[in-house]
Amino acid sequence: MKQIIECVPNFSEGRNMEIIGQITDQIKSVEGVKLLDVDPGAATNRTVVTIAGEPEQVIEAAFQAVRKAMELIDMSKHSGAHPRFGATDVCPLVPISNITMEETVKYAHRLAERIGKELGIPVYCYEEAALQPERRNLAYCRSGEYEGLSKKLSEAGWKPDFGPAEFLPRTGAIAVGARDFLVAYNVNLNSTSTRRANAVAFDIREKGRPMREGNPVTGKIMKDENGKQIDIPGTLKACKAIGWFIEEYGIAQVSINLTNISITPVHVAFEEACKKAAERGMRVTGSELVGLAPLKVFTDAGKYFLKKQQRSVGVSQDELIKIAVKSLGLDDLKPFNPAEKIIEFVLEEKTGHLLMDKTCRAFADETASESPAPGGGSISAYMGVLGISLGTMVANLSSHKPGWDERWEEFSRWAEKGQALKDELLFLVDEDTNAFNKIMNAFGLPKGNDLEKAARAEAIEEATRYAIEIPLRVMRKSFEAMEIIEAMAETGNPNSVSDAGVGALAARSAVMGAYLNVKINASGLSDKSYVEKVLAEGAELEKQACIAEERILKTVNAKIK
Predict the structure, then answer these.
(1) Do 166 and 187 lie in a common domain?
(2) 432 is catalytic
(3) Is the pTM of this model over 0.85?
(4) Is residue 82 annotated as part of the catalytic site, yes or no?
(5) pLDDT for 289-343, tens place per residue?
(6) The one catalytic residue among 89, 180, 432, 499
């Protein structure tokens, strides 16, 4: 699965679109990176750019953009309403999918080090990437802004994390960080009152509302011994919110920024807004997502609402998204298109060549053609898909069976495991064909001299090893599927026990079929110790799969007599 990160560089130029265009052209020139948004502001004289893709490509695009901004933006002539201290003021990386924050931090440090080394720009690392605790706060790093930077860099305590402690009048400094995804999200009310919407916003936002003497609305704001305003915190952490009236829709909204969706997910904010609105005599009619959000926002919300209904969460990704959209009322004001609002979907390559995107008939026709791929490896993976799909179906039917309501969580857990295995095996259907194509491409490399022959031999060896690893993964996942299938044969809905039996047959066939591919590809590998190891693992998986199949069919046949 591809790792995806987002990068949101802020450039200190929001008026000259020619300059912004040259910077974004640098980003577009990096293959594999998607330019998601360009948001210039004249008053702030600042442009926020959003890009996403795989980490290596993203940090390359970010570096090239920083380099171009250094060339084009003169900070000595800059003015604007927004705090800033550099041509590229901030450059945060955000984990989106299949990547941890810890991994994202490492990429942030790599980017920061390269900017400091190759461009000679002072770099401060902030938020999760901070190398000094006090520098986690961006405002602290940027204190004194550009005008105070020269003096700051001369002080020992302000030595940059990367790059020289040298003041660059044209360029200033840059803050490179790693942070969680920020979701801009509006909750719709059946009200036209900004004041009432504000009240809900103050109820939920982390900052809350000022503590007042006497009347909680009009009373004098209370302050501590240091003269600082005393606040009554709201109910949600990592949440900023305000109420406003939207003339376009004719309704009041609670406008929310969720600064850390690991702390306060979208569905939690929605539920809390519903609760607080109800306490004030209002009803939430739906909500609105501003910009894009990661897939996880929707799958987590879908699972949350299914659990509230005491229904299995082991359903497809599409079903989870559908439940999330309907439960959050994201289609209240206008149609909601996941393909345009979910980051991972926007980044998807629309090749039209994936086997899994074909109809059953088209897949069969492609397999039956004179093309050598897809072949037995892809079919083995697909048999694994069918096997675990049947096991998952039994789990979901069992979770929803009348009279078994107290067991819904038990079967939901099995179904969720099954869906994860199904998705992995679906990926391997196409990846087996890709592995075959890698071998063909390697054999097609030139061999006109000794250097070319050596490179070709190395490429063939590498491709062959990969062509072994893919069917071996199919074996492992298909055998893992048999645990779920067996549990469903033993404890699932008895009306579907034959489905569990067919699932076992398919999963065992997937294991055996994939092993044939492991063996045929292993015969061409020169690393004999590796070959011995994988063949031994494959033989054991095949043996255990056959034993499991026999055991499952014994259970199935005993129940259908």
Answers:
(1) no
(2) yes
(3) no
(4) yes
(5) 887 898 999 999 999 999 999 999 999 999 999 999 999 999 999 999 999 889 8
(6) 432
